[in-house]
């Protein structure tokens, strides 16, 4: 093997240094596509406008905080945080709103419409619907007493949606722990992050059809709790009757959800699976005893969820109306 002379070595070093720096520049650019200050010069009042509309909506109906959080989750878990869930069906296009996990369930679209209308008046064609959904989810949580987090911005809106992906990618409330863990790991989340995100069920309500089987057929449920639920969720009929996911403090974002699980008062089958003698029991115990730990982990997991496959740069578009493509 021939040894390189010093001049060749310098040239080779220079070559690798330049290419190494170029690679890091590319990586930096990729990571910098979303930024907390994305609208600071192009629409400086965007965030305060979103917050004002969300606060008014939650003051009018506390449940809306949970609805906006769920809207963000159901958007991001289907081909990324791209606002695809907002698109209405048309004669030649089927969106995600009629997917099993969404129909008669996902809500908050009118709040997003109101925000978009107000932001468009301030800064036409600047703020994406996908970013509005992401920020509104954070503001809805904060309005109900939950943690805040820095939402990275700069997502663009999809020009299509996927009914099939919505039907297959969103975790079912009937899943066992063995199904929940891969459903979240497929999106890059650890089991710990899955337990933290599930804590979003400290607010909001669920329909009878999603918990009927649990309250009538399962043994790992507090008997008095099950009896109280049956009065509004008959074995037949009443599919859309509602019950709070957190029976203790249904309109306050806190750690009561985990305490309820320890008392076998998880509303959904998938909720109680987090504390049922399995690998996530210890994490439920941690969050039940430390709201600050839960808040920190929830906020970090939400930031991570908001970064799922965003459209950036010249991909996608900035919709003028969140319900339809331009």
Can you tell me about this structure?
The chain is mainly alpha-helical and 326 residues long. The chain is 50% helix and 2% strand. The chain is built from 14 helices and two strands, in the order ααααααααβααβαααα. It has a two-stranded antiparallel ribbon. The protein is globular, with a radius of gyration of 23 Å. The model is unreliable at 1-32 (pLDDT under 50).
Features:
326 residues; mainly alpha; two-stranded antiparallel ribbon; 14 helices; 2 strands; globular; disordered N terminus
Can you give the helix content as a percent range?
40-55%
* Largest sheet: number of strands, sense, barrel closure: 2 strands, antiparallel
- Low-pLDDT runs: 1-32
What is the mean predicted local confidence, pLDDT? Answer: 92
| Assembly state of the chains shown | single chain
| Gross morphology | globular
